Amino acid sequence: MTQVLLNALVVGTTYALIALGITIIFSIMKVVNFAHGQLYMIGGFVVYYFNVVFGLPFWFGLLMSFVIVGALGIAMELFLFRPVMLRVKREEVTMLLAMGTAVFLESLALIVFGEKQRGVPPIATGIVELFGARLPTGRVVVIVVAALLIVALMLFIGYTKTGRALRAMAQDRDATALQGVNLKWLSAMGFGLGTGLAGLAGGLLVAIFAVHTGAGTAVSIKAFLMIMIGGAGVLSGAILGGFVLGVLESVGYALLPGSMTFLIIFLIVIGFLIVRPHGIMGKPWG
Amino acid sequence: MSAAFSISDLSVSYGKVRAVKGISMLAGKGEIVALIGANGAGKTSILRAITGLTRPERGEIRFDGERLDGTGPDQVVARGVAMVPEGRRIFPFMSVRDNLLMGAYRRKDSAGVSADLDAILDRFPRLRERIKQQAGSLSGGEQQMVAIGRALMSKPRLLLLDEPSLGIAPIIVREIARFVTSINRDHGVGVILVEQNSRMALKLSSRAYVLETGRIALSGPSSELAANDDVRRAYLGG
């Protein structure tokens, strides 16, 4: 069982990164970014290209997964979401736009990266013994790095001027503009931060699991599940949702035949949402 | 009078509805000017146009020789104009401290920012007691103090106040009125005061404009307007 829980920790920390990214975008733009999983997948390929194809260090590739996928997010905000949101107010429109973007990115990735599964050489060798369970060192490194990234993000949001402005913008856009904040710049930045986190998560997990161009859809759905569990728009809820899904998934895969796990997880989430529609940490009013 | 602030021939429309129909107004350096009128007369639209939240259809807005129109809210703040919006619009899920610090977003002088934060907390001791509390949990009057404090944290030379007395206990309205007078007197901050509480607005201001359906119906020294029979009947309740 310890083994299962340690696995849950690996999955949970990276899921938390994914959920944090989608939550930042949701809270500042009120957009559910259904392309989040595809951006995660691209992050994985960025690391593969820098590490395996160009022969550069894994960690440089990881940095680039944040930079490149973040830049992609800024471009999405500037050229897709902003022009559309200026013209229409209905929320379904941005959801459809996000889904369309997901399909577009996935098709583009298939053309550019091909259909092959790609992985990187192990980032660390050896095995660590923890509480009587054995975990490859590489996985321990992934947990530690993901946890550090989460802490860094929370510090950035909680204690820097830009983080404070992002929180303000999530609560009241006009009032934020009245404090002298350039909203155009900040929304693009926030969107880029959110997608950059998807890129980081994908880049980090490629050290453990191989990535392929179809990997995004499942991640998008899982990201959506996580924020439904944790509570949409709340950062602490996103972290919690990531861990809850990580634990459910790991325990499920250990005890049940593979295809049953997500069937049961969906049933649990549906049941849970009937009881608590705004998630664990979410506020009833949004 | 040297007009530090001027609006000329301003029109604001929302779709086909014209909310402001070619108004002009002036405010001297460090003057308190009131803008009174019924609901829907266009008062808030004028303030939104000044701050850049709404793009005017036509007209020119100038402050200290610089054009404000066509720049956007962040540039208006950078040019020394701050607004306390109607309904306060504080950030409810942020601490009082973070709310106040948001007002200093554009400032780089961290020593000056903490000194000003201290000065505001000295002026409103209730806020100091609640500095770590979420601003949304405060009373209406306390929230108004946060909103005014937040606006002052940008060190403005012109302060726009939109209905500061709306929905607030009379005792706090008096405290806020005293505060506005004191920052105007001690720091030379000009004030444009939009109020439905015309009695208070005319008492605080040196000059006033009376707005009716998007046009300026009357203007002049506040004491004269307060004595004007039409104004008394329409806005001061007889």
TrEMBL record, chain A:
Pfam families given in the database record: BPD_transp_2
Localization (cell): Cell membrane
Molecular function per GO: transmembrane transporter activity
Keyword Nucleus annotated: no
Keywords carried by this UniProt record: Amino-acid transport, Cell membrane, Membrane, Transmembrane, Transmembrane helix, Transport
GO cellular component: a single term: plasma membrane
Membrane-topology descriptor: Multi-pass membrane protein
Transmembrane segments: 6-27, 39-56, 62-81, 93-113, 140-159, 188-211, 223-248, 254-275
Keyword Transmembrane helix: yes
Single GO BP term: amino acid transport
Record-linked InterPro entries: ABC_transp_permease (IPR001851), BCAA_transport_permease (IPR052157)
Similarity field: Belongs to the binding-protein-dependent transport system permease family. LivHM subfamily.
PANTHER family: ABC TRANSPORTER PERMEASE PROTEIN, BRANCHED-CHAIN AMINO ACID TRANSPORT SYSTEM PERMEASE PROTEIN LIVH
Protein name per UniProt: Branched-chain amino acid ABC transporter permease
Organism: Kumtagia ephedrae
Record lineage: Bacteria, Pseudomonadati, Pseudomonadota, Alphaproteobacteria, Hyphomicrobiales
TrEMBL record, chain B:
GO biological process terms, semicolon-separated: L-amino acid transport
Keywords of this entry: Amino-acid transport, ATP-binding, Nucleotide-binding, Transport
SMART domains: AAA (SM00382)
UniProt key word Manganese: no
Pfam families tied to this protein: ABC_tran (PF00005)
PANTHER family associated with the record: HIGH-AFFINITY BRANCHED-CHAIN AMINO ACID TRANSPORT ATP-BINDING PROTEIN LIVF
Designated name of the protein: ABC transporter ATP-binding protein
